[in-house]
Amino acid sequence: MNGAVHTSVLSTVRIHIPTRGFSTNMVRYIGSRLLHALPVLFLVSLGAIALTNLMPGSAAETILGEFAREDDIVRLEEELGLNAPIWERYVDWVGGAVQGDLGGSIRSRQPVSELILERVPITLEIGLASLVIAIAVAVPLGAYAAANEGGRLDKVVTSLVSVSLALPTYVIAIFLIYLIAVKGGLLPPNGWSPLSDGIVTNLRFVALPIISLAIAEIPVMLRVLRADVMATLKEDFVLSARSRGLSRNYVLFRHALRPSLFSLVTVSGIVFGRLLGGTVIVERIFSLPGVGSLIATSVLGKDVRVVQAIVVLIALLYIVVNTAIDVTYTYLDPRVRGK
Amino acid sequence: MSHTVDPQSIDPEIATSAGASSRPRKKRRTMLAAASVWMTIVVIAAVFADLLPIADFGETVGESGESPFESISEPLGTDRLGRSMLSRSVYGARVSLAVGLLGALLALVVGGLAGLLAAQFKGPIRAIVDVLANSVLAVPPIIFLLAIVSALQPSIPTLVVSLSMLVLPTFARLTKANALSQMGREYILAANAMGAGNARILFRELMPNAAGPVLAYSLLVVASLIVAEGALSFLGLGVPPPYPTWGGMIASGQTLLAMQPWPVLIPAFLLFFTVYSLNTVGEALQQKLYARESQM
B77 versus A324: which is more confidently predicted? Predict the structure, then answer.
């Protein structure tokens, strides 16, 4: 029922890649997953386009503020097609979106697709780097803690996990800025320098954001992994490997770790969602010009076109990633496919 | 075999710490006591804020950025506008708790109802509940909140509604899963055999038995909503100033962090203590509940 029980069953079954009957079953499974994702994507995008309908009173007036001129309001209504019914606006938007045209920003007059694309690399950099660091810390730490259950390291790890689970990303970032940038004077508290201006300056600016994001992700991974490794270590094959004289660490990392990594795949969807949300906060705190800070400023400026586009794109990405995770999971464990 | 469904299998982000059991019992009990005391203080402060002998949250009571623990009248110091940090912290607790509790309550009622209906009625109702839940969960929480807040004017009611929408699907799924696991049990069969109608089975039989784990999970939800409200306030999208919020206090003090760290550190610590306490109490409640279930 919880992670521990579930993998103890899994680990007795050797993970093997089936050779026969694979292609048709797998294709059918992927197909059905995608079929399930379609209505969700439809609803999310419809919801994003309907955001202007949610605005109280006239949407154009809400966007421009109460002191807007009458002709500006009329012009914006025209531009956003606010007088057309929702389904017409939806079809228009989707029609443009599939051709890469997401409309123009109300504030900066730039095409939305351009605005987003020039900011993707920054978000990608801090997102990927924090993920790599989080995995590099969580995997060995979780395995060691599980192998020495109740030991000193395990106690430290479990209390750190429950502490960091109670730390919102913005609090982590503030503490880091205070300790490392303000008190320590080691790194700049905020700002940005592009990679083209040299990797060292770039790293000085992105180091704290990356660490903040990583600290937010580590406890989620660590907790699942620790529970799973603990369950795996109680398996017979671990005992038999130990009795053959293999060292504790060898058994831990070469035998027990792999079947336990399995559950990391299942939480990776959640980790990915946390990461996407975390970039919004972190980019704001550290004034990084990424996609996260773009959506935050666009929401503040009621730049609906940009908000709609980012929401739909992120949802699309999120659905694709989660479907991919489901498929990977099924691929790794043939028994899930039967259900 | 317990018949309740572990919330973590529905939403692994939920803080049911797997390590809690390995912590020594005595230490755990002290933590739980400390957490309960802290929550009591916060709740009392938030409820009786108007009666406490503290300054008004908008009033200038001293110099800009007085350090805490130096004067008796202002034990937490002042912010950069010389306003009382104690008063602002207390009124900030009011926003955090109100939004967190009301949001969780709304989600519990609506999501619980949807989950029960989805468990009892197969076919279109279950399909609709599932698709709606999946659609909300298809957008990362903060992005979802930002989208809603971009359309609505920030105020306590709109915050409560948008925050509750965030956790509604999880409540629906959790209730559905729990109700489904109860469905096969003898007492439901007996009720059916006696000719009980849908409404009776839903509200008199299923609901009381599926409610336990969902209720225990609610405290953890309150904690996560307080974090989300803090994030929105931090981004300038929460309850508008001058009304104080913990997230807003962190954001507005951030520019002066080097000179006046306390106006930022105090709300940051308050948020941490509160969320940690809620998690600790919530986890203890859950463990107690599961222990009782598995003894049956």
Answer: A324
pLDDT of residue B292: 57
pLDDT at A38 over 80: yes
What does the alpha-carbon distance between residue B269 and residue B107 come to, in Å, rounded to a whole number?
Answer: 27
Give me the total of CB pairs closer than 8 Å, taking one residue from chain A and one from chain B. Answer: 183
Quick one: DSSP state of residue A119?
A: T
* Among the partner residues A3, A175, A299, nearest to B268 by beta-carbon distance: A175
Identify the closest residue of chain B to A61 by CA–CA distance.
B151
A26: Cβ–Cβ under 8 A, 6 or more apart, which residues? A327, A330, A331, A337
Interface test with B, best of A159, A161, A165 (most B CBs within 10 A): A165
Question: Where residue A65 falls among pLDDT bands split at 50, 70, 90?
Answer: confident
Q: What burial class does residue B184 get, using C-beta atoms within 10 Å of its C-beta: 0-12 exposed, 13-18 middle, 19+ buried? A: exposed
Checking ipTM against 0.85, whether it exceeds it is no
Q: Is A291 on the interface with B (CB under 8 A)?
A: no
- From the number of C-beta atoms within 10 Å of its C-beta (0-12, 13-18, 19+), residue B156 rates as middle
The CB density around residue A20, as the number of other CB atoms within 10 Å, is 6
Contact A284 B234 (CB under 8 A): yes
Task: Choose from A20-34, A80-94, A203-217 the range with maximum mean pLDDT.
Answer: A203-217
> With bands split at pLDDT 50, 70 and 90, how would you rate the model's confidence at B11?
low
pLDDT of A109-118, one tens digit each? 788 898 999 9
Provide the residue type at A256 as one letter.
A
Encoding tokens for residue B50? 């108007």
> Is residue B223 within 8 Å of B278, Cβ to Cβ?
yes
**Mean pLDDT (chain B, rounded):** 82
Residue A172 — pLDDT band, cuts 50, 70, 90?
Answer: very high
Q: Taking residues B2-22, report their average pLDDT.
A: 47
pLDDT tens for residues A235-252? 888 888 888 988 888 888
B147 touches B139 (CB < 8 A): yes
Side chain identity at B220, as an amino acid letter? L
CA distance B195 to chain A (A): 33
Q: Which residue has the tokens 């803090």?
A: B230
> Residues of chain A with pLDDT > 90: what percent?
16
pLDDT in tens, B103-140: 999 999 999 999 888 888 888 888 888 888 888 887 88
- CA of A159: how far to CAs of A162, A286, B284, in Å? 5, 28, 15
Q: Which residue of A has its CA nearest to B269?
A: A171
Mutate to test the interface with B, among A148, A157, A299 (most CBs of B within 10 A): A299
For residues A306 and B292, what is the distance between their CA atoms, to the nearest angstrom? 51
Radius of gyration of chain A (CA): 24
| C-beta atoms of A276 and B271 within 8 A | no
Q: Which pair of structure tokens corresponds to residue B261?
A: 């760290």
B143 in reach of chain A (CB within 8 A): yes
Cα gap B25→A236, rounded to integer Å: 30
Separation of CA B20 from chain center: 20
Interface contact flag, A162 B280, Cβ < 8 Å = yes
- Interface check for A305 against chain B (CB to CB < 8 A): the answer is no
Block residue for tokens 């154009």:
A60
SS3 assignment, position B290:
helix
